[in-house]
Amino acid sequence: MPGTETISDRPSTAKGRETRRRIVEAAADLMVERGVAAVSLDEVGRITSTSKSQMYHYFTSKDALVTAVVLCVRDRILAFQGDLLVGVRSVDDLQQWADSIVALHRRAPQWSGCPLGTLASELTGETGAGRIDILEAFGSWQLLLHDALARLRDSGSLRADADVERLAIAMLASLEGGLLLSRALQDETPLAVALDAAIGHLRTFAVP
């Protein structure tokens, strides 16, 4: 499976695992903020007070670190989205999901966009590190939305003919597009409008 770690990727000691986690978390923050190309192994080592020998012990190349960063960002997003979507039992619950996303980004110091989308803008045109993991991450995110919509359809909240796969794609595309434009304009309006439009389309399949 894409993104599956081998035994050699997992340090054998708790201290080693914590050191690796700390490096990856710091690198993820830097790469999302400044871009993958702008961040080097040496810089991550300096920021995390990790020696060069330790850095290359855990990551044999920058590509290895980039792959770990993509998986880290994926796990952050899926954890957050999973917590929001697991309790969805109605279309109104999905409106609360949308409102929660807008509120999260409104509280941030600036509109930074989607971390996964930011990485994807650099990596999906490449054939190297992270590309397959980016695709898998978006697929997993789409599946969370698909499963939430399938529960609504199976419980009778949505019509039986609702194509939950297409609706999930539409909602994820609205979210990503809204985040991109909100980041460019530093304004929550595009994200809020895009998600409202997606929820409005979903309501056309709601059972009265």
Can you describe this structure?
With 208 residues, the protein is mainly α. The protein has one domain (7-203): Tetracycline Repressor, domain 2, CATH 1.10.357. It has nine helices and no strands. The protein has helices spanning 14-34, 41-47, 52-58, 62-85, 91-107, 115-123, 131-155, 164-185, 189-203. The radius of gyration is 19 Å and the shape is elongated.
What distinguishing features does this structure have?
mainly alpha, elongated, Tetracycline Repressor, domain 2, 208 residues
Overall spatial form: elongated
Q: How is the main sheet built?
A: none
How far do the termini sit from each other?
42 Å
What is the fourth-level CATH superfamily? Tetracycline Repressor, domain 2
Bin the strand percentage: under 5%
Strand tally, please?
Answer: 0
Count of DSSP-assigned helices: 9
Q: If you compute it from the alpha carbons, what radius of gyration comes out, rounded to the nearest whole angstrom? A: 19 Å
Number of domains: 1
What does the secondary structure layout of this molecule look like, with pairings?
Layout (H helix, E strand, L loop, with lengths): L13 H21 L6 H7 L4 H7 L3 H24 L5 H17 L7 H9 L7 H25 L8 H22 L3 H15 L5
Helix pairs in contact: 1-4, 4-7, 5-9, 6-7, 7-8, 8-9
